[in-house]
Write a structure and sequence with these properties.
CATH architecture of one domain: 3-Layer(aba) Sandwich
Radius of gyration: 23 Å
Number of strands: 19
CATH topology of one domain: Aminopeptidase
CATH superfamily of one domain: Zn peptidases
Number of helices: 14
Strand content: 15-25%
């Protein structure tokens, strides 16, 4: 089949698979959006590959062809990457502040030899789109581009400036996010809507059970642990060994749990999840929400990857290197430990705790980069109402709940810059379909098409005020 035929088939299948509530029908914007999605997946926009500027150029050309003036597109370069911002100007005479919409173009890298399918080719199979970035975050990029094109085609004149940011290094330094936050089109934004978090949960049968809106996120901090040693010949082992000392330190860290923590946001979130989750999971979530000091509940949730980050600070080893020759004692061994720190906990206090747990002065700690704590964005009734309308257009009655993000997003940078940020991807997924940053990333076909509609609705609803 031709790519156009595949696009029409994919859109038709998406409409046929949608169940419950109002269903989105296949339309020309959907067909165009699938084509954009396919093209952006093909760009290997991971750090070191230099593909983000090429992708940004493609998006800019697509938007210009759709009627966006070149004067309303700005490129913000940083080293080998770039951010792009696009403005839909308000009608003359408005005093309302801009609204920012954000998505990131870069991805965590994927090695094709490790994947079942080519990670940089959009593959539609068994009701899913496969490829690196299908969920994180090229679905968001596509949704924003599709929204701009639809609004331009309709001749929509917003009541305030709508600014759309496409970030080039969210997965690494977020330097381009800082450039965006400081730009004249953005710096006075009343609030931001981020495509990179939030979303709905489906039960195993595919029934929507809850929709989450991110209003805060944990502090992202990375520590480098290093052990050095004089080394020597491997035929003459010595009592101290850089690799063994580092391994012992990591084993201690693996066994350590940081204290249980909770706030109003996390308790409300876990309580809401508990109400719609069957079995022991639901009972433990409900118990923790009622009493975070319930040891049975907190211990249970500590063993659940999807919930542990909401109950405490977490630190985990993510990278390892050591030694310089197979026949030599290691002179150096290094591990990278990534921490997601609960709000209001200082990075220095976490480091002190790690040093205490390791209990070996030979292990040296260094904080990488410059960790920044992000303030909480208090939920706005107007934004929550618009998100509720957009979600309920397809899933009537689904509960809408704010939550704390265990991961990290551009929202941190926007919040620090004084722009309240709410993440709402519009995507409904099963927990078992979460493969972002991992092998064989995928997104259900219906979720992609509904995500397009979600941001179109939000932009038109909030932009018309």
């Amino acid at each position: 089949m031709t790519s156009k035929a595949l696009a029409i088939l994919g859109a038709t299948l998406a409409a046929a698979l949608m169940a419950g509530g109002a269903t989105a029908q296949t339309s020309p914007p959907d067909v165009k959006a699938r084509d954009i999605y396919e093209k952006v997946i093909a760009f290997r926009t991971a750090k070191g590959h230099g593909q983000v500027p090429r992708m940004a150029t493609y998006l800019a050309d697509t938007l210009k062809a759709g009627g966006v003036p070149a004067a309303d597109i700005a490129m913000l370069p940083s080293d080998d990457t770039v951010a792009m911002i696009v403005r839909l100007p308000a009608a003359v005479g408005t005093s309302a502040k801009p609204i920012l919409f954000s998505a990131h173009m870069d991805v965590v890298d994927a090695r094709p030899e490790d994947w079942t399918r080519d990670p940089f080719r959009l593959i539609e199979e068994d009701g899913y789109f496969f490829g690196r970035g299908t969920m994180d975050n090229k679905a968001g990029v596509t949704a924003l581009v599709s929204t701009i094109l639809r609004l331009k085609a309709e001749g929509f004149k917003p009541a305030r400036d709508l600014v759309f940011a496409f970030i080039g290094d969210e997965e690494t330094q977020m330097a381009t996010t800082r450039l965006v936050a400081a730009h004249d089109w953005v710096k006075d934004a009343e609030y931001a809507l981020n495509t990179d978090a939030g979303g709905g949960a489906l039960d195993p049968a595919g029934k929507p059970i809850i929709y989450l809106v991110q209003g805060a996120e944990k502090t992202y901090a990375t520590f480098e642990l290093t052990v050095t040693n004089p080394g020597g010949h491997s035929s003459r082992p010595r009592g101290d060994n850089a690799i063994y000392d580092l391994a012992a330190a990591l084993t201690r860290l693996q066994a350590h749990r940081f204290p249980v923590m909770a706030n109003d946001l996390t308790r409300a979130y876990l309580g809401a999840i508990g109400k719609v989750t069957p079995g022991e999971d639901g009972a433990m979530l409900t118990a923790f929400a009622a009493n975070p000091q319930d040891a049975k509940a907190s211990d249970y949730l500590a063993g659940r990857p999807e919930f542990v980050g909401t109950t405490r600070t977490t630190c985990v080893a993510t990278m390892l290197s050591g030694g310089h020759a197979e026949n030599a004692l290691p002179q150096k061994a290094t591990a990278t430990v990534n921490c997601r720190i609960f709000p209001d906990v200082k990075v220095a206090d976490v480091q002190a705790e790690l040093v205490r747990v390791v209990a070996n002065p030979a292990v040296k700690f260094a904080v990488l980069n410059n960790p920044e704590a992000s303030p909480v964005s208090e939920m706005r009734p107007d934004v929550m109402a618009a998100i509720t309308r957009a979600v309920h257009a397809h899933h009537p009655g689904v509960p809408i709940v704010p939550y704390l993000e265990s991961g990290g997003t551009d929202g941190k940078v926007y919040r620090i810059a004084g722009i309240p940020t709410f993440a709402s991807s519009g995507l409904f997924t099963k927990p078992t379909d979460m493969f972002a940053h991992g092998l064989n990333e995928r997104l259900a076909v219906p979720a992609f098409y509904r995500g397009l509609d979600h941001f179109y609705r939000l932009a038109k609803d909030l932009g018309g005020r």
